[in-house]
Amino acid sequence: MDARKFQAAQKRAQDVLSRAGIVLTPAEASQIEVADLGLNRLAEEGLELVTYINNDRYCAKELVLFPGQTCPEHRHPPVDGNPGKQETFRCRSGEVWLYVEGEPAPSIRAQVPEASRPYYTVFHEIALRPGEQYTIPPNTLHWFQAGPEGAVVSEFSSTSTDGNDIFTNPNISRAPVIEN
Amino acid sequence: MDARKFQAAQKRAQDVLSRAGIVLTPAEASQIEVADLGLNRLAEEGLELVTYINNDRYCAKELVLFPGQTCPEHRHPPVDGNPGKQETFRCRSGEVWLYVEGEPAPSIRAQVPEASRPYYTVFHEIALRPGEQYTIPPNTLHWFQAGPEGAVVSEFSSTSTDGNDIFTNPNISRAPVIEN
Fold first, then answer.
1. In this predicted model, what pLDDT tens digit does every residue of A83-116 receive, in sequence order?
2. Mutate to test the interface with B, among A17, A23, A54, A82 (most CBs of B within 10 A)
């Protein structure tokens, strides 16, 4: 991702958070994470994040998805004897469609990103509107996409160790890449 | 607390959350916890809570404090080999003054509740405005009071086991008491 696109996405994410009533300090705003996951098509696949706290016991983040933006399918495997990260997603604004392992929906509301179609394999659908939430068990495949208004999702979880995430798409690298 | 006071406090807490941009489901709104801690002076000492999730790994709540309302001094001791609850307080609206163990402030901004003065013993002050946060280590005495606008505070933490909390005031019981 080039630096200009990165900064534009940061600014846009900050605006979305602000419209959802979520206040960031200037330092936090300048550190909003823009994750294109190395795919270089942020509008379709990626997300924006603010990590409030991540310690050895718990973690809390805000996730921002632009309209139609998709966080690709992944799971949080067991690490060092821990059962893998468990996450509670709480929708704060907009709408988000979450897909997990289980009975697939007959037809899903999200549009699977065309370029990565083979890497989306679970289709049990949970639609979340503001105030609604869902807890994803450890080591469970999941992906999610914002509806046409975009979405802000609070994530409450056990400790986050992003480097251990396993994405279905082998081309994904979790570390953000920013080129000048 | 009589049922009318309880319901009025619930309604008021819901309004405060709504003004802070925080959406609850109708079921959540009807279950807002009003904790007068058995002291029967809610306006001075107590708080209102919504627990989003509390499992064996993490917990997330919204805390509502009315203007000048104080959550009395307490600590979260070690339980069953765990080091005690660790909490991150993030101010979402209003202002909150948090007091923990450590170097006491020369003069504090909060007003110690007169009826319970002997039960407030730590005076290291942290003032939190929207977007600001502070993490309280396990087993550390703390209390907090909202400023003149009241406050909404998001609490991210390890597992919550309220029954184990140790309040400095021996008259406090954690279980809510509602009389009809």
1. 999 999 999 999 999 999 999 999 999 999 999 9
2. A23
**Element holding B52 (H helix, E strand):** strand B47-54
Q: Which residues of A touch B52 (CB under 8 A)?
A: 88, 90, 133, 156
CA distance B156 to chain A (A): 7
The span from the CA of A68 to the CA of B2, in Å, is 49
Q: Write the DSSP symbol of residue B137.
A: P
The answer to whether B100 touches B141, Cβ cutoff 8 Å, is yes
Whether the CB of A86 is below 8 Å from some CB of chain B: the reply is yes
3-state secondary structure (DSSP) of residue A115: helix
Cross-strand partners of A75: A166
* Half-sphere exposure for A108 (CA within 13 Å, toward CB): 24
pTM tops 0.90, yes or no: yes
Instruction: Give the residue carrying structure tokens 């909404």.
Output: B152
Helix (H, G, I), strand (E, B) or coil at B74: strand
Contact A23 B60 (CB under 8 A): no
Contact residues, A window 49-78, toward B, CB-based 8 Å cutoff: 52-53, 55, 57-60
Work out whether the CA dihedral A62, A20, A172, A89 comes out positive or negative: positive
By C-alpha distance, which of A157, A151, A159 is closest to A22? A151
CA distance B147 to chain A (A): 18
Nearest to A168 by CA among A141, A147, A144, A148: A141
Secondary structure class of B54 (helix, strand, coil): strand
pLDDT digits (tens, 9 = 90+) for A131-163: 999 999 999 999 999 999 999 999 999 999 989
Buried (b) or exposed (e) across B98-111, using 16+ Cβ within 10 A? bbbbeeeeeeeebe
Chain B interface mutation, best of A53, A133, A152, A155, highest count of B Cβ atoms under 10 Å? A53
**What's the one-letter identity of residue B42?**
L
Position of tokens 């997603």?
A: A89
